[in-house]
Amino acid sequence: MTYPGTLSLSRAHLTHLADLLRGHRARIGSRWRKLTPGRQALLVLAHLRNGDTYTRLAAGFEIGLATVYRYVREATDLLAARAPSLTAALWRLAGNGHRLGILDGTLVPIDWLGGEANRLYYSGKHHRHGVNLQGLVDPRRGDLVWISDGLPGSTHDLTAARTHAVITTAQRADLELLADKGYQGAGGTLVVPHKGRKLTKAQKAHNRMVNSVRGPGERGFATLKAWRILTKVRCCPQRVGTLAKAILTLELGPES
């Protein structure tokens, strides 16, 4: 049986993705598909926003499982390719009036994995398997402006930031980044709170400043995780970064 459902998204999201798919089909010379660009866009948004499985989508749109897989992969790859690069995001932050950004990390839960990958993707900090993502947030409005590729969940946030060259690139751009205590010792232009119980008044004031400005960083990732596909990803862990970038492109809109 099938039943109608809803998506908590604006028509602009559907139009944006449908236009991308329409242009892509024209470029590759695709003459016929089982679904129109608009219907394919709706299928992909249902998967990303509501977390609908391939099986449910195949039944609802009356197409095969393999077709759903191809449609979702095609659309997410198109969207992810349009996500802002680290350099572009830093340029945006450099022009926000105070040359300041927020660096934060998050763990996207995944299914249990067998073999060596099971240990590699297990996060001791969060006590679950997942993929580490790093992100940059504009403190003015709390908008997420960049998301990294995924790394195994056992990767420390500081190691992940260094792997993606976030710290060195921000330093070259003369851009300050505020982060939490997990990035202690990063150096460069990264600003973190002081550790310890016996802090001076100046150190306590510094911590209050950093924590108050870092508040929007949490909201940035909350927006990303409003897309239920990231509640627990059941596809290949190496696709998590692509999914996150695709969602970021949709959140930023056509101007991205």
From TrEMBL:
Species of origin: Phytohabitans suffuscus
Residue intervals of the DDE Tnp4 domain: 103-247
Domain Transposase Helix-turn-helix: 33-84
InterPro entries: HARBI1_dom (IPR027806), Transposase_HTH_dom (IPR027805)
Protein name per UniProt: IS5 family transposase
Pfam family, one: HTH_Tnp_4
GO molecular function: metal ion binding
Ribonucleoprotein is among the record's keywords: no
Keyword Cell inner membrane in annotation: no
Domain of life: Bacteria
Source organism phylogeny: Bacteria, Bacillati, Actinomycetota, Actinomycetes, Micromonosporales
Signal peptide (residue range): none
Cofactor(s) needed: a divalent metal cation
Keyword set, alphabetical order: Metal-binding
